[in-house]
Each structure stands twice: as structure tokens, then as C-alpha cells.
């Protein structure tokens, strides 16, 4: 691993730790503001694993991102989206889609 890759990996680990601490921030809020969420990160992680020839399925990738099985995180932290969040999400998709 070169220096740049090690730094990127450290930054990614810090991002995951931050998102795990901020379970109050819902995925829909991340999608509205940033255009990606924890599930996107898990998909990108799985894509990178596939490119490297490392077996990883969707559930494994999500567990690595969430720090627990996705179903558990969802039961403990995910709230139903409000009508306002859904409207903001649709508006964001229209602007960036």
C-alpha cells in the first residue's frame, strides 16, 4: 500500500467512525445534502472489493460501514422519512439527477 492509499484508508475509517457516532443523521438527510449515504458507501466498498478480487456481498459491506448488521442498525436508529424529507429528497434528485 502506498502512502496515498494508506492516507485514504485512514480517512475512510475516520468517516465510518464519524457516521457510526452520528446515528442521529439519517441516510435520507445525507442523500439530500451530499448525494450519497451509508448504503452508497457500502456499495462503493463492495465494488472496490470486487475489483480487488475480494469476495464481499451486500450484507458484509453494509455491516462494515454500519459497524453492525444493517437490520440491527435500521431497527435501532432509522426513522420513517417525514413528508418534508421526502420532498427535499425529490427536489435534490431533480437538481442532480
TrEMBL record:
Keywords tagged on the record: Cell cycle, Cell division
Keyword Cell cycle: yes
Domain of life of the native organism: Bacteria
GO biological process, one term: cell division
UniProt keyword Cell division, yes or no: yes
Lineage: Bacteria, Pseudomonadati, Pseudomonadota, Gammaproteobacteria, Lysobacterales
Short name of any one Pfam family annotated for the protein: DUF1244
Protein species of origin: Arenimonas soli
Protein name: Cell division protein DedD
Domain (SMc04008-like) ranges: 25-90
Amino acid at each position: 500500500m502506498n502512502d496515498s492509499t494508506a492516507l485514504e484508508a485512514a480517512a475512510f475509517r475516520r468517516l465510518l467512525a464519524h457516521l457510526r457516532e452520528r446515528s442521529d443523521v439519517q441516510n435520507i438527510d445525507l442523500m439530500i445534502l451530499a448525494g450519497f449515504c451509508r448504503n452508497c458507501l457500502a456499495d462503493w466498498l463492495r465494488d472496490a472489493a470486487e475489483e480487488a478480487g475480494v469476495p464481499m456481498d451486500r450484507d458484509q459491506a453494509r455491516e462494515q460501514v454500519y459497524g453492525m448488521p444493517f437490520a440491527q442498525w435500521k431497527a435501532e436508529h432509522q426513522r420513517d422519512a417525514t413528508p418534508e424529507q421526502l420532498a427535499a429528497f425529490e427536489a435534490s434528485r431533480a437538481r442532480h439527477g
